[in-house]
């Protein structure tokens, strides 16, 4: 008589097969759930990252604006401090006023009020010389003020000297030998004025030419 052990074994194998399949399905479900959770976590992380970046950008913008405002305030405070310092300095600083011209450039009628002479120990070539000063009083037609302008030159009536054309202009003729310059005092002449500026910015009125003054006939 035949035995039936194989059938039982087959039945047992079938049961095991179903059990394995169920386990596989459970594992697949767990994997799917895990993947879904991972996807959700990634999405959440991405959203959090975007929000963080936006917050950081906003914070950076606010920070930049604050820094700019602080810098502007600091600049304003420094300017105010500098102005206050300048004002305080002005209170104690003695400034040298620059000289301005007293006459416009042009020709005026001048009265020679004084002829002066001063000995100088050394000159351009290391030799002593005498400085002659011809002081003219000129009326400013705009202000009515009388201005004194002095012409200075070496005491020489050589035709190439600076003094010669001035004396000749006052006299209207060449000066004679042994001419006494004091004889020029009290004479009127037409005086040409030009300006010059020195290294310190002072403006001076200079006599550059003189012509004989001829009174108008009445």
Give a short summary of the structure:
The chain is an alpha+beta fold and 218 residues long.
Keywords:
alpha+beta; rod-shaped; OB fold (Dihydrolipoamide Acetyltransferase, E2P); five-stranded antiparallel sheet; 44% helix; 218 residues; disordered N terminus; 2 helices; 5 strands
Structural topology:
Layout: H1 5-92, E1 106-120, E2 129-139, E3 146-154, H2 163-171, E4 188-197, E5 203-212
Antiparallel strand pairs: 1-2, 1-4, 2-3, 4-5
Plain-language structure description:
The structure is a single chain. Helix content is 44%, strand content 25%. By secondary structure, it is of the alpha+beta class. It has two domains: 95 residues; 107 residues, OB fold (Dihydrolipoamide Acetyltransferase, E2P), CATH 2.40.50. A five-stranded antiparallel beta sheet has the order 3-2-1-4-5. The protein is rod-shaped.
**Secondary-structure element order, as H and E?**
HEEEHEE
Number of extended strands: 5
Largest sheet: 5 strands, antiparallel
CATH class of the largest domain, named: Mainly Beta
Mean pLDDT: 79
CATH architecture assignment of the largest domain: Beta Barrel
Low-confidence stretches: 1-18
End-to-end Cα distance, whole Å, is: 183 Å
Q: Tell me the CATH topology of the largest domain.
A: OB fold (Dihydrolipoamide Acetyltransferase, E2P)
Number of H/I helices: 2
Strand percent estimate: 25-35%
Give the strand order, joined by hyphens, for the main sheet.
3-2-1-4-5
Q: How many domains would you count in the coordinates? A: 2
Instruction: Tell the overall outline.
Output: rod-shaped
Based on CA atoms alone, the radius of gyration comes out at: 55 Å
Measured as a percent range, the helix fraction is: 40-55%
Region (Disordered): 1-97
Biased composition (Acidic residues): 21-90
Biased composition (Basic and acidic residues): 8-20
């Amino acid at each position: 008589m035949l035995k039936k052990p194989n059938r039982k074994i087959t039945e047992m194998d079938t049961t095991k097969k179903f059990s394995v399949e169920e386990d596989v399905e459970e594992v697949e479900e767990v994997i799917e759930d895990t993947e879904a959770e991972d996807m959700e976590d990634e999405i959440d992380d991405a959203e959090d990252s975007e929000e963080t970046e936006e917050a950081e950008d906003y914070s950076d913008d606010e920070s930049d604006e604050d820094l700019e405002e602080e810098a502007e305030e600091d600049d304003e405070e420094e300017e105010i401090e500098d102005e206050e310092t300048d004002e305080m300095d002005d209170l104690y600083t003695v400034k040298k006023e620059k000289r301005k011209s007293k006459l416009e450039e042009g020709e005026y009628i001048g009265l020679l009020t004084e002829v002066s002479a001063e000995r100088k120990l050394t000159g351009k070539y290391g030799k002593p010389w005498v400085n002659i000063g011809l002081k003219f009083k000129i009326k400013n037609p705009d202000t009515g003020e009388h201005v004194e302008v002095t012409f200075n030159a070496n005491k020489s009536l050589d035709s190439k000297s600076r003094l010669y054309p001035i004396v000749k202009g006052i006299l209207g003729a060449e000066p004679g030998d042994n001419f006494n310059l004091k004889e020029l005092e009290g004479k009127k002449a037409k005086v040409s004025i030009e300006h010059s500026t020195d290294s310190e910015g002072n403006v001076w009125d200079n006599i550059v030419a003189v012509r004989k003054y001829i009174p108008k006939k009445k």
